[in-house]
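Final report, Chapter 2: Outcomes

The project's central promise was a pipeline that accepts a single protein chain and returns its three-dimensional structure in a standardized token representation, suitable for archiving and comparison. That pipeline is now operational. To close this chapter, we reproduce one record exactly as it appears in the project archive, with the input sequence first and the structure output second.
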Amino acid sequence: MHVSAATSPGTPSRPNEDWLSAGSDLVVVLDGATVRTGTGCRHGVVWYVRNLGARLVAGAVDVASPLPEVLAEAIRGVAALHPECDLDHPGTPSAAVGVVRVEGDRLAYAVLGDVSLVLEIGGVTTVVSDDRVGRTAPEERLLADAHLIGADGKDEALVRMKHAELAARNRPGGYWIAAADADAARHAVVGWAPFSRSALLSDGAARAVDPFGVLGWEDVLDTAPDDLIRLVREVEAADPLGEAFRRNKASDDATVVRVSGVAGPAEPTTPGG
């Protein structure tokens, strides 16, 4: 299959908290969760996604291992690297996860958190995404959106929103994300599809479709990853205060991996954060 990929930090002076690995039969995209509160951990989000990604890739090589089990083992493995940290802290580093693996003539996938998977099956575009995090803390989100980016009260509103969001993290009725509890992997959105064109996007890249609307989901599969991220950056630059599109950050880390057809072996790449 042919694989093309791009990733870009939301702020050039800050590390990219997205991470990706793209090879001939396996694609992984991680979107590190923004830290706005204490974490109980001396390690940052970049450290977390790099270590989680490496373990996911190593475990997923065995196609006999279901992807949720691979994810669970990767979460356990990272937790074992820093037992001195307070891994029960509600703000411990975490990440949304998207994994696609070729298994014969079909694609297996697992999505946990707000990474989006776009699939074309029989000419029909389908989107797989886990939007449970976006349904948490609705009142706090509205209050945060009431402030323009950089305005007085915006940061305080975002911290309140984050506390409310974390109170719902990895618990029934809330949302599930990779952090320190391997049980979260059981709640991934999983499935299989006939081999088709597909793309994995972090939520910063998915802005191109929602909320910016410069592309439709079907257009994502026809747009080069670099071009998609460029479109996102153009809209962000034209709306720096979030007046047209209310959001938490003016610009977000953005990652896209696009997969199409069987076109001979692709060289593995890991340009992550």
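Archive annotation: The chain is about 25% helix and 25% strand.
This record, like all others produced under the grant, will remain available to the consortium after the project formally closes.
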